[in-house]
Amino acid sequence: MRKRVMICVAACLYYSGCVKLARWWTQRQKSYFIVLNYHTASSGNLRQHMLYLRRHYHVMHLENALATAASSSPGSDRRTPLVLTFDDGYHDNYTHAFALARELQVPITIFLIPGYIESGNRFWWLSKNHLVKHTQVEKVSVEGKIYHLHQPVERQALLQVIDTHLRHAPSVAQRETFLLAMHEALAVPVAITPEEDATRPLMWAEIREMQQSGEVSFGAHTMHHPILSYLTDQQEVQREIQECRVALEQQLERPVRAFAYPVGQRAHIGERVTQAVQQAGYDWAFTTLYGFNTRQSNRYLLRRIEADVNQHWLVLAVEAAGLWSFFSRLRWLPGIRAYINKNPQK
């Protein structure tokens, strides 16, 4: 139900001409540039997304878009610059996003996590579901509380406990120690299974192949993807940011100038984190805060629009045009959202 309502609303906005008008208005601003934020690339509508975006926007590599937005003299292509970014470096960024980027000649930028590339381990945020799904025990004790895993309510409670520990870990070492302990307690092997191939981390050979194609550029996303504002040691914050850049530049043999904050909302960043990014020598840093960017935007708090390959292309068109945010300010979309919340997805 929710998905159908969103598509219907998007279709009304698109075919009424509202999306076209919003694109025209953005184009007239000249200094605007849009950055979309994807993660995984497979099992969705990425082809339709790319075809739509290629037609209506000037899709560019990240650094080129930033340079164009900062320039006072527009180029020959008057369409609004737009960048497709993918966070984390999932394997399907190679098998799907890269394949489409080459076929359709649509450049993309991927923010990488070298620690996971080196280890090949499962990304920590995928671990909670994997652990509970594949557990070989009927009950487990965590922090003195026993969870009976045959009961759905207690399974869900355990998922929340695991997520809280991993997400709010005060150090990477403590996060990994807790994760290993949960694997042992739940009797789940650490190794990635064949069914997880699409979501495993990229390998260096795949990354180099993408770079050599000229269709893919890369940025930094910390060494091990902690939520930086939750780390208690400022030196660890600096290491996560600095060592990521060093590792990527050694492997890619080119400067890495852009950084993306893990999770990336205001609560996950903070002033000490932005200072660490500047000290590490990056020229730009990207949040997950919604919005467009201009040449006046803070270079270390640049905004992105969340995108998902499972979105219908009409929904993406409305998102890229900035209309969801516009109508929210007019108190129109909250009414739609209230209707959706009363009619859960079937």
Report the structural category.
alpha/beta
Helices and strands, in N-to-C order? HHEHEHEHEHHEEHHHEHEHEEHHH
First CA to last CA: what distance? 6 Å
Shape: globular
Low-confidence stretches: 330-337
Please indicate the percent range of residues in DSSP E strands (runs of 2 or more).
Answer: 5-15%
- Report the biggest beta sheet as strand number plus sense, adding barrel if it closes: 6 strands, parallel
Q: Work out the helicity level.
A: 40-55%
Number of separate strands: 10
What's the helix count? 15
Account of the 3D structure:
With 346 residues, this protein is α/β, with parallel strands linked by helices. Among the domains are: 1-22 and 322-346, no CATH class; 108-204 and 216-237, no CATH class. Helix content is 49%, strand content 12%. It is built from 15 helices and ten strands. Strands 1, 2, 3, 4, 7 and 10 form a six-stranded parallel beta sheet that branches. It has a two-stranded antiparallel sheet with strand order 5-6. A two-stranded parallel ribbon has the order 8-9. Strand 2 (58-59), helix 4 and strand 3 form a beta-alpha-beta unit. Helix 1 (2-15) crosses helix 13, helix 3 runs parallel beside helix 5 (92-104) and helix 11 runs parallel beside helix 12. The radius of gyration is 21 Å and the shape is globular. It starts with a helix and ends with a helix. The model is unreliable at 330-337 (pLDDT under 50).
